[in-house]
Prior knowledge:
By secondary structure, this protein is of the alpha/beta class. It has 2 domains: 2-178, Elongation Factor Tu (Ef-tu), domain 3 (Beta Barrel); 189-326, Rossmann fold. It is 18% helix and 27% strand. It is built from 7 helices and 13 strands. It has helices spanning 2-10, 157-164, 199-211, 234-243, 269-275, 291-297, 312-317, and strands at 56-57, 78-89, 92-98, 111-121, 127-134, 145-151, 170-178, 189-195, 218-225, 247-253, 263-264, 283-288, 324-326. The strands form 2 sheets. Strands 1-5-4-7-2-3-6 form a 7-stranded antiparallel sheet, with helices on one face. It has a 6-stranded parallel sheet with strand order 11-10-9-8-12-13, sandwiched between helices. The longest helix has 13 residues, at 199-211. InterPro entries: CBR-like, Cbr1-like_FAD-bd_dom, FAD-bd_FR_type, Flavoprot_Pyr_Nucl_cyt_Rdtase, FNR_nucleotide-bd, OxRdtase_FAD/NAD-bd, Riboflavin_synthase-like_b-brl. Keywords: FAD, Flavoprotein, Membrane, Mitochondrion, NAD, Oxidoreductase, Transmembrane, Transmembrane helix. It comes from Oldenlandia corymbosa var. corymbosa. It is found in: Mitochondrion.
Amino acid sequence: MASFFQKLAKAAPIAFTQAYRGQSKSASANFRFPIGAIAAVSGGISYIYYYSSSKVVYLDEASEDSGPPMALNPNKWIEFKLQDKAQVSHNTQLFRFSFDPSVKLGLDIASCLLTRAPIGEDAEGKKKYVVRPYTPISDPDAKGYFDLMIKVYPEGKMSQHFAKLKPGDVLEVKGPIEKLRYSPNMKKHIGMIAGGSGITPMLQIIEAIVKNPDDNTKVSLIYANVSPDDILLKKKLDVLAASHPNVTVYYTVDNPTNDWVGGKGYISKDMVVKGLPAPGDDTLILVCGPPGMMELVSGNKAKDYSQGEVSGLLKDVGYTESMVYKF
Length: 327
């Protein structure tokens, strides 16, 4: 197991960025791509639902629903044991959690799970929790385990909890939390724009497509990061693109190295026009990344976490609300 996990860790990205760094010099590039908040290769960016990324919340457990056997339960916190962990970089770790090997995790495409950790008690002695969403990087159909990749922040309540976990310790998990309900061939061509850990839901969908011989969906991904070393799961994405003609991946980085051969700079209108399917009824554009990227590309979600209006580059190119989904 140790040898396998070290190999898996080496296949992960080498470096991650710190926090989202601020504003750009012009309206067409009003963000820097330091894609921070990389929680698990994770999805805790814009689809936190009613769990604010900075809030501590109380949760009441509901009765368990009946259904097909699966490890996750959407109405109950379940304990999963940490099987192993491996260091990916100076501040990023890979965690494997185990469960009954006869059942699947129960993760839908595309969805995430919720994790929680106790952070003390209130004045009345009631236990308080921090809650965060994460998207596993393991195959949703895998039995007996799931993997999370976590960037550990010095002040991150949940990531610090992860950092302290040792093999044999347990993590409380609830889910799945549904995002986009993907179905095979729902669109002829899906375009994707991801920044940093926003790659995770995209990877879920890509893998679901290529695993299904009856799914003929074409996928075009634009993936932006600060530097080549910040690209998450690049080896995996490269293999997917090389082995499946219906999948293309275009990388762009803010700070390219001398030998970098991909895109340079922020996501631009030209990249969108050349790299994504044209607006149309058979087109769907998925967007997931930090707020600055979302604002530039598609506009952020509304305050109530609904999709909101489409703005930014996608609106300029001609995409409408029915053609865009924001994670």
